[in-house]
From TrEMBL:
Gene: Brip1
Protein name from the UniProt record: FANCJ protein
Organism phylogeny: Eukaryota, Metazoa, Chordata, Craniata, Vertebrata
Native source species: Semnornis frantzii
GO aspect biological process, one term: double-strand break repair involved in meiotic recombination
Source domain of life: Eukaryota
GO molecular function, one term: DNA helicase activity
Helicase ATP-binding domain mapped to chain residues: 1-233
Amino acid sequence: DPCTECCCDSGKETAKDTGIKKKKENGEQQLFVPKIFFGTRTHKQISQITRELKRTAYSTVSMTILSSRDYTCIHPTVSSSGSNRNEMCVELLEGKHGKSCLYYHGAHKLGEHHALQSAHRVYQAWDIEDLVSLGKKLRACPYFAARELMVGADIVFCPYNYLLDPQIRESMDINLKDQVVILDEAHNIEDCARESVSYSVTESQLRTAREELDFMVNNNIRQKDHEPLRAVCCSLT
């Protein structure tokens, strides 16, 4: 049924009322529609939310899910490795050993598939398993495809740390300025925020770092930069 509870039904909508801002580009007025970033505690919760999205009238809205390579990598060698999937992926992309990733170069196929579905009005909300399954069929990388889909997505689902950790935001090209952010079960945010700005080191690592910094300072290599760092290591040990 048509919406009757907000200004979009009255014909008098304004940028302020609808949350749509006008931007000037090349001398023309364009409408800026914010994205919705929906953060959850776990990847499993994302699957639950997308399953519920399929049952609503908004199941055809363009979306994407940001997740780690642990969930989305389909390269036979990298996906079967242990905890160094990120490093192995980067090495393939840089061609360090004379090899490249066939799936990475086919990532655009997934975006084209979803665009085709949308054009034929058969597009439906999906979850990570759907994207990975389709990626295997098309021999296309789900990890990088999900990132490409973020450009045209209206809803972006991701774990909390993708929104809270500044390093992850930068690496994933996430800009939250003027966007809508929804945090599911937000009482967990405090712990997640603490983890995002925390780091664990061993005493052995501190001693090794102090020895290397001693070498830098004694050889007058960027001494002003390295002396404060050495003082921190000394105080911690």
